Amino acid sequence: MIVQRVIFENSKKQNLVGMVRVPQSYDQSIFPVVLVLHGYKENKDRDIIVALADHLSHLGFVTLRFDFAGHGESDGDLENFSISNQTDDVVSAVKYLYEQDFVNKNLIGIVGHSWGGNIGIFAASKYSVQSLVTIAARSSTDHFISSHFSPDEIEELSKKGTFVTHDFKTMSSDFLVDFKKYDIKKSASKIKCPWLILHGTDDKRAPYSEARELYSYVPEKIIDIVEMADHTFSGEHRQYLLDTVGNWFLKTMK
User: Fold this and answer.
1) If pLDDT is split at 50, 70 and 90, which confidence band does 107 have?
2) Torsion of CA 171, 205, 40, 66, to 10 degrees
C-alpha cells in the first residue's frame, strides 16, 4: 500500500491537503477511486474518515481524503465556508486525481459523512460520479443551519455580517446567502448514479428522519437505517458501516 500526503490547488489557488492511498497488492495498474469527504468543522483525520479510506483501499480502491478549505491543514478560513466553495473543492480534488496515471477516470465514487455527505449530493448532482454513499447527511439546508446556530446567532449574523462561534471561529453571513442558492431535494432528484443512504437511529447530531426524508426524494435509491448507531457509527457499529460501504462500492464500481 502506498500512502502519500498530497497538496493540490482549488480554483481560488488555495492549497488543499490530502492523503492518498494506492493499493499495491492487485494485478492492475489503474484503480477505481473513492473520495472520502469530512463534515462541517471536521477534517480528513477524523476517525471515521480515516477508517473508511483505509478499509476501501484494502478492497482495491484508490482513496483520497482531504481537508476542505478553511479546515484542517488546508488554506483558507472558516469565514469562507459555503456550499459553492466546498463543491468546488471536490471538483478540484477530482481534477487532481485525473492527473494521476493510477486512477481509472471512469470509476469515481464519493462517500461523505455528515455535511460531507451533503456536499457529495451537490457534487454528484452536477458532475459525473459512478457511485455515492451518504452517512448521516441532512435533508435540508435549513436543518443544518438550525442545528448549528440559534435564532439569535442567525439574527446577529444577518445584522452584523459576521459572528464569532463558541470555539472562536469567525463566520460570515455570506454562507447564508450562498445556502439559499441550493436545494437538497432538487439536487438529490438529479442524481443518476447508484446511491446508498446510511443513518443511525441513535444519531444525536442529525436525526434519522433526515435519511427517510432524503429517501422520499429519490425512493429508487437504497436506504439503511441502523438500530442504535450514533452519528459516527462508533463502537460495535463501525465494522458494519465499513463492510456495508465497502460492499456497496464493490458492487457498483468494480
Assistant:
1) very high
2) 170
192 Cβ neighbours under 8 A, 6+ residues apart? none
> What distance lies between CA 39 and its chain's CA centroid?
6
Q: Which three cell numbers stand for residue 170?
A: 469567525
The residue among 109, 154, 112 whose CA lies nearest residue 128 is 109
How many residues in the chain? 254
Q: β-strand 31-37 against 103-113: which pairing, if any?
A: parallel
Q: Residue 237 maps to which CATH number?
A: 3.40.50.1820
Q: What is the average pLDDT value for the chain, to the nearest integer?
A: 93
pTM (two decimals): 0.95
pLDDT at 52 over 90: yes
96: which 3 cell numbers?
487532481
Q: Which domain, by its residues, includes 165?
A: 2-253
| Cα-based angle 87, 54, 225 (whole degrees, multiple of 5) | 70
Domain count, the chain: 1
Q: Which residues contact 160 (CB under 8 A, 6 or more apart)?
A: 173
pLDDT band at 26 (very low <50, low <70, confident <90, very high): low
Q: Is 225 exposed, middle or buried (0-12, 13-18, 19+ CB in 10 A)?
A: middle
